Protein backbone atom coordinates (compact mmCIF):
# COMPACT_ATOMS: atom_id res chain seq x y z
CA UNK A 1 0.00 0.00 0.00
CA UNK A 2 1.15 3.52 -0.77
CA UNK A 3 0.57 6.84 0.96
CA UNK A 4 -0.96 9.46 -1.30
CA UNK A 5 2.18 11.59 -0.99
CA UNK A 6 4.00 8.69 -2.70
CA UNK A 7 1.19 8.06 -5.17
CA UNK A 8 1.46 11.52 -6.76
CA UNK A 9 4.88 13.09 -7.18
CA UNK A 10 5.46 16.53 -5.75
CA UNK A 11 6.88 17.82 -9.02
CA UNK A 12 4.98 18.03 -12.29
CA UNK A 13 1.45 17.75 -10.86
CA UNK A 14 2.13 20.29 -8.11
CA UNK A 15 3.74 22.78 -10.49
CA UNK A 16 0.71 22.56 -12.78
CA UNK A 17 -1.67 22.81 -9.84
CA UNK A 18 0.01 25.89 -8.37
CA UNK A 19 -0.93 28.42 -11.04
CA UNK A 20 1.15 31.28 -9.63
CA UNK A 21 3.16 32.03 -6.51
CA UNK A 22 5.35 34.71 -5.03
CA UNK A 23 7.35 33.91 -1.93
CA UNK A 24 8.27 36.31 0.83
CA UNK A 25 10.43 35.94 3.91
CA UNK A 26 10.08 32.79 6.06
CA UNK A 27 8.51 34.55 9.07
CA UNK A 28 5.87 36.42 7.05
CA UNK A 29 2.19 35.45 6.48
CA UNK A 30 1.04 32.99 3.82
CA UNK A 31 -2.14 33.38 1.75
CA UNK A 32 -3.46 30.64 -0.54
CA UNK A 33 -6.17 31.29 -3.16
CA UNK A 34 -8.12 28.42 -4.72
CA UNK A 35 -9.91 29.20 -8.01
CA UNK A 36 -11.88 27.09 -10.46
CA UNK A 37 -12.93 24.37 -8.02
CA UNK A 38 -16.00 24.25 -10.25
CA UNK A 39 -15.16 24.14 -13.94
CA UNK A 40 -17.95 26.52 -14.98
CA UNK A 41 -16.64 29.26 -12.67
CA UNK A 42 -13.57 30.76 -14.40
CA UNK A 43 -13.92 34.31 -13.00
CA UNK A 44 -11.61 33.63 -10.05
CA UNK A 45 -8.88 32.31 -12.31
CA UNK A 46 -9.10 35.36 -14.57
CA UNK A 47 -8.86 37.62 -11.54
CA UNK A 48 -5.83 35.74 -10.23
CA UNK A 49 -4.11 36.09 -13.59
CA UNK A 50 -4.81 39.84 -13.65
CA UNK A 51 -3.33 40.39 -10.19
CA UNK A 52 -0.32 38.17 -10.89
CA UNK A 53 0.51 40.12 -14.06
CA UNK A 54 0.30 43.45 -12.24
CA UNK A 55 2.48 42.25 -9.35
CA UNK A 56 5.12 40.87 -11.72
CA UNK A 57 5.01 43.79 -14.17
CA UNK A 58 5.23 46.47 -11.49
CA UNK A 59 7.62 44.43 -9.35
CA UNK A 60 5.42 44.88 -6.29
CA UNK A 61 7.01 43.64 -3.10
CA UNK A 62 4.82 41.53 -0.83
CA UNK A 63 5.31 41.16 2.91
CA UNK A 64 4.53 37.47 2.79
CA UNK A 65 3.92 34.59 0.40
CA UNK A 66 1.00 34.13 -1.98
CA UNK A 67 -0.10 31.02 -3.85
CA UNK A 68 -2.87 30.54 -6.41
CA UNK A 69 -4.02 26.93 -6.76
CA UNK A 70 -6.08 25.80 -9.76
CA UNK A 71 -9.13 23.68 -8.92
CA UNK A 72 -10.79 21.25 -11.33
CA UNK A 73 -8.43 21.43 -14.29
CA UNK A 74 -10.24 18.93 -16.52
CA UNK A 75 -13.68 20.47 -15.84
CA UNK A 76 -12.28 23.95 -16.53
CA UNK A 77 -11.00 22.75 -19.92
CA UNK A 78 -14.49 21.52 -20.78
CA UNK A 79 -16.38 24.42 -19.19
CA UNK A 80 -18.55 22.18 -16.99
CA UNK A 81 -19.09 22.19 -13.23
CA UNK A 82 -17.57 18.71 -12.82
CA UNK A 83 -17.04 15.47 -14.76
CA UNK A 84 -17.90 12.70 -12.29
CA UNK A 85 -18.40 14.18 -8.82
CA UNK A 86 -18.67 17.71 -7.45
CA UNK A 87 -15.11 18.46 -6.36
CA UNK A 88 -16.41 20.79 -3.63
CA UNK A 89 -18.67 18.19 -2.01
CA UNK A 90 -16.31 15.24 -1.58
CA UNK A 91 -13.68 16.28 0.98
CA UNK A 92 -15.51 15.58 4.20
CA UNK A 93 -16.87 12.19 3.19
CA UNK A 94 -13.30 10.91 3.28
CA UNK A 95 -12.54 12.46 6.65
CA UNK A 96 -9.32 14.37 7.17
CA UNK A 97 -7.79 12.56 4.21
CA UNK A 98 -9.90 12.94 1.03
CA UNK A 99 -9.27 9.37 -0.08
CA UNK A 100 -8.50 7.50 3.09
CA UNK A 101 -4.71 7.80 3.16
CA UNK A 102 -3.54 4.67 1.35
CA UNK A 103 -4.07 3.03 -2.04
CA UNK A 104 -2.71 0.02 -3.76
CA UNK A 105 -0.15 1.07 -6.35
CA UNK A 106 -2.17 -0.51 -9.14
CA UNK A 107 -5.49 1.02 -8.02
CA UNK A 108 -4.80 4.58 -9.11
CA UNK A 109 -6.23 4.12 -12.61
CA UNK A 110 -9.70 3.42 -11.19
CA UNK A 111 -9.97 6.83 -9.55
CA UNK A 112 -12.64 9.18 -10.87
CA UNK A 113 -11.60 12.47 -12.45
CA UNK A 114 -12.44 14.48 -9.32
CA UNK A 115 -10.74 11.98 -7.01
CA UNK A 116 -7.57 12.47 -9.03
CA UNK A 117 -8.01 16.26 -8.90
CA UNK A 118 -8.55 16.18 -5.13
CA UNK A 119 -5.39 14.14 -4.64
CA UNK A 120 -3.33 16.63 -6.62
CA UNK A 121 -4.86 19.56 -4.73
CA UNK A 122 -4.05 17.94 -1.43
CA UNK A 123 -0.44 17.38 -2.51
CA UNK A 124 -0.23 21.09 -3.40
CA UNK A 125 -1.65 22.01 0.02
CA UNK A 126 0.78 19.71 1.79
CA UNK A 127 3.73 21.11 -0.14
CA UNK A 128 2.77 24.69 0.80
CA UNK A 129 2.28 23.79 4.48
CA UNK A 130 5.59 21.94 4.61
CA UNK A 131 7.39 24.79 2.82
CA UNK A 132 6.36 27.31 5.47
CA UNK A 133 6.03 25.24 8.65
CA UNK A 134 2.79 23.44 9.35
CA UNK A 135 2.32 24.70 12.92
CA UNK A 136 2.20 28.37 12.04
CA UNK A 137 -1.08 30.16 12.69
CA UNK A 138 -0.76 32.88 10.03
CA UNK A 139 -1.94 30.80 7.05
CA UNK A 140 -5.05 32.10 5.30
CA UNK A 141 -6.87 30.00 2.70
CA UNK A 142 -9.64 31.39 0.52
CA UNK A 143 -11.77 29.88 -2.24
CA UNK A 144 -13.03 32.02 -5.15
CA UNK A 145 -16.46 31.13 -6.56
CA UNK A 146 -19.41 32.47 -8.55
CA UNK A 147 -23.14 31.62 -8.55
CA UNK A 148 -25.68 30.48 -11.13
CA UNK A 149 -28.02 33.39 -10.29
CA UNK A 150 -27.41 37.14 -10.24
CA UNK A 151 -25.92 38.12 -6.91
CA UNK A 152 -23.97 40.67 -4.95
CA UNK A 153 -20.65 39.51 -3.54
CA UNK A 154 -20.71 37.65 -0.22
CA UNK A 155 -18.51 35.52 2.02
CA UNK A 156 -19.12 31.96 3.24
CA UNK A 157 -17.45 30.79 6.44
CA UNK A 158 -17.45 28.02 8.96
CA UNK A 159 -18.39 29.77 12.21
CA UNK A 160 -15.12 30.08 14.10
CA UNK A 161 -14.02 33.27 15.82
CA UNK A 162 -10.84 33.37 13.70
CA UNK A 163 -12.88 33.12 10.48
CA UNK A 164 -15.30 35.77 11.71
CA UNK A 165 -12.45 38.16 12.49
CA UNK A 166 -10.99 37.68 9.02
CA UNK A 167 -14.27 37.89 7.09
CA UNK A 168 -15.62 40.91 8.96
CA UNK A 169 -12.98 43.14 7.36
CA UNK A 170 -14.82 42.92 4.03
CA UNK A 171 -17.95 45.08 3.43
CA UNK A 172 -20.11 42.22 2.16
CA UNK A 173 -22.74 39.89 3.69
CA UNK A 174 -21.30 37.01 5.72
CA UNK A 175 -23.01 33.59 5.74
CA UNK A 176 -22.28 31.58 8.90
CA UNK A 177 -22.23 27.82 9.33
CA UNK A 178 -22.58 26.84 5.70
CA UNK A 179 -20.84 23.52 6.48
CA UNK A 180 -23.87 22.23 8.40
CA UNK A 181 -25.95 22.30 5.22
CA UNK A 182 -23.44 21.88 2.38
CA UNK A 183 -21.09 19.06 3.29
CA UNK A 184 -17.68 18.10 2.00
CA UNK A 185 -16.34 21.50 0.98
CA UNK A 186 -12.66 22.22 0.57
CA UNK A 187 -12.91 25.06 3.11
CA UNK A 188 -14.25 22.68 5.77
CA UNK A 189 -11.29 20.40 5.09
CA UNK A 190 -8.90 23.32 5.57
CA UNK A 191 -10.66 24.40 8.76
CA UNK A 192 -10.37 20.86 10.09
CA UNK A 193 -6.62 21.10 9.56
CA UNK A 194 -6.70 24.08 11.93
CA UNK A 195 -6.30 27.04 9.55
CA UNK A 196 -8.44 30.06 8.72
CA UNK A 197 -10.46 29.62 5.54
CA UNK A 198 -13.24 31.65 3.92
CA UNK A 199 -15.04 31.52 0.58
CA UNK A 200 -15.65 34.56 -1.60
CA UNK A 201 -18.62 34.44 -3.98
CA UNK A 202 -18.22 37.23 -6.53
CA UNK A 203 -21.54 37.14 -8.43
CA UNK A 204 -22.97 35.36 -11.46
CA UNK A 205 -20.83 32.96 -13.50
CA UNK A 206 -20.97 34.98 -16.71
CA UNK A 207 -20.96 38.49 -15.25
CA UNK A 208 -17.83 40.52 -16.04
CA UNK A 209 -18.30 42.21 -12.67
CA UNK A 210 -17.55 38.87 -11.00
CA UNK A 211 -13.98 39.05 -12.32
CA UNK A 212 -13.64 42.64 -11.10
CA UNK A 213 -14.96 41.78 -7.64
CA UNK A 214 -12.68 38.74 -7.35
CA UNK A 215 -9.71 40.92 -8.25
CA UNK A 216 -10.74 43.55 -5.67
CA UNK A 217 -11.11 40.84 -3.03
CA UNK A 218 -7.60 39.56 -3.84
CA UNK A 219 -6.03 43.00 -3.34
CA UNK A 220 -8.03 43.70 -0.19
CA UNK A 221 -7.10 40.40 1.43
CA UNK A 222 -3.43 41.17 0.93
CA UNK A 223 -3.97 44.71 2.23
CA UNK A 224 -6.00 43.71 5.30
CA UNK A 225 -3.37 41.10 6.11
CA UNK A 226 -0.65 43.80 5.93
CA UNK A 227 1.10 42.08 3.07
CA UNK A 228 0.84 45.02 0.69
CA UNK A 229 0.60 48.81 0.91
CA UNK A 230 -2.27 50.49 -0.94
CA UNK A 231 -3.20 54.20 -1.09
CA UNK A 232 -6.45 55.05 0.67
CA UNK A 233 -8.27 55.84 -2.57
CA UNK A 234 -7.42 52.38 -3.93
CA UNK A 235 -8.72 50.70 -0.79
CA UNK A 236 -11.95 52.68 -1.08
CA UNK A 237 -12.24 51.80 -4.77
CA UNK A 238 -11.85 48.07 -4.10
CA UNK A 239 -14.24 48.12 -1.15
CA UNK A 240 -16.85 49.92 -3.25
CA UNK A 241 -16.34 47.39 -6.02
CA UNK A 242 -17.32 44.45 -3.81
CA UNK A 243 -19.92 46.28 -1.71
CA UNK A 244 -23.56 45.53 -2.53
CA UNK A 245 -25.40 48.35 -4.23
CA UNK A 246 -28.73 46.61 -3.75
CA UNK A 247 -29.52 47.65 -0.18
CA UNK A 248 -28.47 44.28 1.26
CA UNK A 249 -26.95 44.74 4.76
CA UNK A 250 -23.32 43.61 4.98
CA UNK A 251 -23.96 41.80 8.25
CA UNK A 252 -23.99 38.15 9.37
CA UNK A 253 -26.64 35.68 8.26
CA UNK A 254 -27.48 32.13 9.27
CA UNK A 255 -29.28 29.41 7.36
CA UNK A 256 -32.90 28.66 8.29
CA UNK A 257 -33.64 26.09 5.61
CA UNK A 258 -31.79 24.06 2.97
CA UNK A 259 -33.53 22.38 0.06
CA UNK A 260 -31.44 19.44 -1.20
CA UNK A 261 -32.01 18.15 -4.73
CA UNK A 262 -31.62 14.49 -5.69
CA UNK A 263 -32.12 14.94 -9.43
CA UNK A 264 -31.40 18.45 -10.76
CA UNK A 265 -33.07 17.52 -14.06
CA UNK A 266 -36.37 17.27 -12.18
CA UNK A 267 -35.91 20.53 -10.28
CA UNK A 268 -36.95 23.89 -11.73
CA UNK A 269 -36.48 27.14 -9.85
CA UNK A 270 -39.18 29.71 -10.60
CA UNK A 271 -37.56 32.42 -12.71
CA UNK A 272 -36.68 35.84 -11.41
CA UNK A 273 -35.11 35.15 -8.02
CA UNK A 274 -31.80 36.80 -7.27
CA UNK A 275 -29.54 35.98 -4.36
CA UNK A 276 -30.67 37.69 -1.12
CA UNK A 277 -34.13 38.59 -2.46
CA UNK A 278 -36.63 38.85 0.45
CA UNK A 279 -39.25 36.08 0.47
CA UNK A 280 -42.33 35.38 2.57
CA UNK A 281 -43.48 32.12 4.12
CA UNK A 282 -45.54 30.01 1.66
CA UNK A 283 -44.27 31.97 -1.35
CA UNK A 284 -43.88 29.69 -4.42
CA UNK A 285 -40.18 29.06 -5.09
CA UNK A 286 -39.68 26.05 -7.36
CA UNK A 287 -41.03 22.85 -8.88
CA UNK A 288 -39.66 19.38 -8.21
CA UNK A 289 -41.14 16.41 -10.08
CA UNK A 290 -43.90 18.86 -11.12
CA UNK A 291 -44.80 19.52 -7.47
CA UNK A 292 -44.86 23.14 -6.32
CA UNK A 293 -42.42 23.98 -3.51
CA UNK A 294 -43.26 26.86 -1.18
CA UNK A 295 -41.06 28.71 1.30
CA UNK A 296 -41.32 27.08 4.76
CA UNK A 297 -40.22 30.36 6.42
CA UNK A 298 -39.76 34.04 5.67
CA UNK A 299 -36.26 35.37 5.09
CA UNK A 300 -34.03 35.83 2.07
CA UNK A 301 -33.53 33.38 -0.77
CA UNK A 302 -29.96 32.19 -1.00
CA UNK A 303 -28.13 30.49 -3.87
CA UNK A 304 -31.20 29.53 -5.98
CA UNK A 305 -30.23 26.83 -8.47
CA UNK A 306 -30.53 27.95 -12.10
CA UNK A 307 -28.39 25.22 -13.68
CA UNK A 308 -29.05 21.56 -14.30
CA UNK A 309 -26.17 20.36 -12.11
CA UNK A 310 -25.75 20.58 -8.36
CA UNK A 311 -27.51 19.11 -5.35
CA UNK A 312 -28.57 22.31 -3.58
CA UNK A 313 -31.85 23.78 -4.81
CA UNK A 314 -31.94 26.86 -2.59
CA UNK A 315 -31.46 27.99 0.97
CA UNK A 316 -33.32 30.49 3.13
CA UNK A 317 -31.28 32.76 5.38
CA UNK A 318 -31.96 35.48 7.93
CA UNK A 319 -29.88 38.14 9.64
CA UNK A 320 -28.14 37.32 12.94
CA UNK A 321 -28.39 39.89 15.71
CA UNK A 322 -25.29 41.68 16.99
CA UNK A 323 -26.23 40.60 20.54
CA UNK A 324 -26.08 36.90 19.56
CA UNK A 325 -22.68 37.36 17.94
CA UNK A 326 -21.23 39.14 20.96
CA UNK A 327 -22.71 36.61 23.37
CA UNK A 328 -21.37 33.66 21.38
CA UNK A 329 -17.89 35.20 21.22
CA UNK A 330 -17.89 35.70 24.99
CA UNK A 331 -19.16 32.20 25.78
CA UNK A 332 -16.67 30.51 23.45
CA UNK A 333 -13.84 31.99 25.50
CA UNK A 334 -15.45 31.05 28.83
CA UNK A 335 -15.50 27.97 31.07
CA UNK A 336 -19.02 27.00 29.90
CA UNK A 337 -17.63 24.29 27.59
CA UNK A 338 -16.74 22.22 30.65
CA UNK A 339 -20.41 22.17 31.72
CA UNK A 340 -21.80 20.66 28.52
CA UNK A 341 -21.12 17.10 29.62
CA UNK A 342 -23.51 17.57 32.54
CA UNK A 343 -26.49 18.52 30.36
CA UNK A 344 -29.32 15.94 30.23
CA UNK A 345 -28.97 13.65 27.21
CA UNK A 346 -25.40 14.74 26.44
CA UNK A 347 -22.50 12.27 26.37
CA UNK A 348 -18.83 12.81 25.54
CA UNK A 349 -17.53 11.28 22.30
CA UNK A 350 -13.99 12.70 22.46
CA UNK A 351 -12.17 15.94 23.26
CA UNK A 352 -13.82 17.72 20.32
CA UNK A 353 -17.34 16.31 20.16
CA UNK A 354 -20.50 15.35 22.04
CA UNK A 355 -23.44 13.10 21.26
CA UNK A 356 -26.92 14.36 22.15
CA UNK A 357 -30.08 12.30 22.60
CA UNK A 358 -32.77 14.73 21.48
CA UNK A 359 -35.48 12.66 23.20
CA UNK A 360 -33.89 13.75 26.47
CA UNK A 361 -32.32 17.11 25.58
CA UNK A 362 -35.30 18.50 23.69
CA UNK A 363 -35.01 22.26 23.92
CA UNK A 364 -32.54 24.67 22.30
CA UNK A 365 -29.87 22.03 21.70
CA UNK A 366 -28.65 23.48 18.40
CA UNK A 367 -28.86 27.03 19.72
CA UNK A 368 -26.74 26.23 22.80
CA UNK A 369 -24.08 24.33 20.88
CA UNK A 370 -23.98 26.96 18.12
CA UNK A 371 -23.41 29.67 20.71
CA UNK A 372 -20.39 27.73 21.94
CA UNK A 373 -18.95 27.22 18.47
CA UNK A 374 -20.02 23.66 17.73
CA UNK A 375 -21.15 22.27 14.42
CA UNK A 376 -24.36 20.27 14.82
CA UNK A 377 -25.10 17.33 12.52
CA UNK A 378 -27.86 14.74 12.61
CA UNK A 379 -26.54 11.22 13.18
CA UNK A 380 -30.01 9.65 13.07
CA UNK A 381 -33.60 10.56 13.90
CA UNK A 382 -32.90 10.70 17.64
CA UNK A 383 -29.23 11.67 17.83
CA UNK A 384 -27.14 14.75 17.11
CA UNK A 385 -23.35 14.90 16.92
CA UNK A 386 -21.85 18.25 17.94
CA UNK A 387 -18.28 18.91 16.78
CA UNK A 388 -16.15 21.75 18.14
CA UNK A 389 -15.14 23.93 15.21
Describe the structure in your own words:
Strand 3, helix 3 (43-57) and strand 4 form a beta-alpha-beta unit. Helix content is 29%, strand content 27%. The chain has eleven helices and 20 strands. The protein has helices spanning 4-7, 12-17, 43-57, 73-78, 113-132, 161-167, 186-193, 208-224, 232-242, 322-332, 365-371; strands spanning 2-3, 18-22, 30-35, 65-70, 102-103, 139-147, 154-157, 174-176, 196-204, 252-260, 267-269, 278-279, 284-288, 291-294, 299-302, 312-319, 346-350, 353-357, 374-380, 383-388. It is globular. The two termini are 32 Å apart. The strands form four sheets. An eleven-stranded mixed beta sheet has the order 2-4-3-6-9-7-8-10-16-15-12, sandwiched between helices. The protein has three domains: 2-242, Aminopeptidase (3-Layer(aba) Sandwich); 252-319, OB fold (Dihydrolipoamide Acetyltransferase, E2P) (Beta Barrel); 334-388, no CATH class. It is an alpha+beta fold and 389 residues long.
The fraction of residues assigned to DSSP E strands is: 25-35%
Overall outline: globular
Please work out how many helical segments DSSP would assign: 11
Q: Class by helix and strand content?
A: alpha+beta
Question: What are the segments in which pLDDT stays under 50 over at least 5 consecutive residues?
Answer: 7-11, 94-108
Query: Could you tell me the radius of gyration in angstroms?
Result: 21 Å
CATH C-level of the largest domain? Alpha Beta
Quick tags:
eleven-stranded mixed β-sheet; 20 strands; OB fold (Dihydrolipoamide Acetyltransferase, E2P); 11 helices; 389 residues; 3 domains; Aminopeptidase; alpha+beta; four-stranded antiparallel β-sheet
